[in-house]
Amino acid sequence: MQIKIDGITDDRLHRPLQNIANLFFEECVLAYGETEEPSDLVISLAISQDADSVSVSGEIKGTGEKEHHTKPLLAGWSEKEVFKQVKNTLSYVYLNLLQSHTGMTQKWGILTGIRPTKLLHKKLQSGLTKEEAHADLKKDYLIHDEKINLMQEIVDRQLAAVPDLYRVKDEVSIYIGIPFCPTKCAYCTFPAYAIQGQAGRVGSFLWGLHYEMQKIGEWLKQHDIKVTTIYFGGGTPTSITAEEMDLLYEEMVRSFPNVENIREITVEAGRPDTITEEKLAVLNKYKIDRISINPQSYENETLKAIGRHHTVEETIEKYHLSRKHGMNNINMDLIIGLPGEGTAEFRHSLDETEKLMPESLTVHTLSFKRASEMTRNKHKYKVADRQEVSRMMDDAVRWTKEHGYTPYYLYRQKNILGNLENVGYSFPGQESIYNIMIMEEVQTIIGIGCGAASKFIHPETGKITHFANPKDPKSYNDRFEHYTEEKIKYLDEMFVKSAL
Ligand code: SF4
């Protein structure tokens, strides 16, 4: 699919136009200026702007479809605010043109970002009432009531789970990335290396990880910065041995300040094939009772097709084993739209979930991420179409509601089937605080270990700075000291200098 766009000379507007086109068409190329290939659609857009307002007119050539929209520009706005208004007005016209041309409705309107709830938090924090904020979302972003209500429900739950959500900016959360898994899944783009035969590399990696924990912990103690949550992810953090886990948590307790007061510690035990009684005993020893066990699907054939190398029976068995060994807050992930799966298979997954009733359930929609094996071999994997994906999503919404779960975080992804969202549901009071922190970007998250991304959020200005540790264990093992130093520089910048 190729769309030719006439009338847009500012390169900064190309990306929003592309993002909106992606909501309508699977593989869509936008062309500006002269093209050799014939285009499927030609859209002309014209922006006119004066001191008080911006207007955009648009037309799909040869169809008679036209749109026009004007928005105000307020005195005293910065250049950035003016540009945002121009971009939103253009997106508004362009979205309406594509909606009327394709007959498709985009319930998220012109919003293509991955964190819709952050926008609502911002509006409420600025002093708008719920009604005013909702009216803005509807008018400026064309978001439908159904999605606005979902956003509000999530925002309310987050504020109930973390009443000081708008004040936790002076604390930090910690993400610890362990980049090993029993085998690599086909849809995976996480830093995950098959652990078999890697003993030497795992040992050096853990050495680096302990070092990072000590240094970061030292800094936090020195500056009296509290830790809100700790999350062990990866990879699969339970793919290392029970002894290695024991030493790691011992390091955590020794290095980080007041671990007994940390609001939540989670360990991803995503792959059921890594869970053993011995490892559960280690979790008990450190009073960690929140883990994730991820079935993804309850069809053995699907698990095989995506390379997970564990069975449905094993997921269920390990779930019960974890319960027996004191895991009181278990999250389970399901993925909608796995290859070969439709409504029947997803309903079966929900029926099986009903027998287990984990405290939280995260429903992902399959996304073809650029680096995954599935994307490289897209032709090999048969996946459901948009309508079916949307029906499965509706099933998830209905099922969770009927079973006492409420949504507490959501994020959208690029290339997500049917332009839907990933939603975390939980029983009220069992929300993952870490997930709320990362999703709403309310505080700094320090990433430690392989592939761990740090996000430094300036406590005063809210400015976000990203910093990533290397994804592969070899580069990490070679330079972990350097990455630790860099993070400490950022922390000084954010917390020490801003306090002067
Ligand atoms: S278990 Fe998770 S991190 Fe590991 S390979 Fe599979 S999807 Fe990737």
Automatic annotation (TrEMBL):
<dbReference type="InterPro" id="IPR058240">
    <property type="entry name" value="rSAM_sf"/>
</dbReference>
<dbReference type="InterPro" id="IPR023404">
    <property type="entry name" value="rSAM_horseshoe"/>
</dbReference>
<dbReference type="GO" id="GO:0016491">
    <property type="term" value="F:oxidoreductase activity"/>
</dbReference>
<dbReference type="GO" id="GO:0005737">
    <property type="term" value="C:cytoplasm"/>
</dbReference>
<dbReference type="Pfam" id="PF04055">
    <property type="entry name" value="Radical_SAM"/>
</dbReference>
<dbReference type="GO" id="GO:0006779">
    <property type="term" value="P:porphyrin-containing compound biosynthetic process"/>
</dbReference>
<feature type="domain" description="Radical SAM core">
    <location>
        <begin position="164"/>
        <end position="406"/>
    </location>
</feature>
<protein>
    <submittedName>
        <fullName>Oxygen-independent coproporphyrinogen III oxidase, putative</fullName>
        <ecNumber>1.3.99.22</ecNumber>
    </submittedName>
</protein>
<dbReference type="InterPro" id="IPR007197">
    <property type="entry name" value="rSAM"/>
</dbReference>
<dbReference type="InterPro" id="IPR006638">
    <property type="entry name" value="Elp3/MiaA/NifB-like_rSAM"/>
</dbReference>
<keyword id="KW-0560">Oxidoreductase</keyword>
<dbReference type="InterPro" id="IPR034505">
    <property type="entry name" value="Coproporphyrinogen-III_oxidase"/>
</dbReference>
<dbReference type="GO" id="GO:0051539">
    <property type="term" value="F:4 iron, 4 sulfur cluster binding"/>
</dbReference>
<dbReference type="InterPro" id="IPR023995">
    <property type="entry name" value="HemZ"/>
</dbReference>
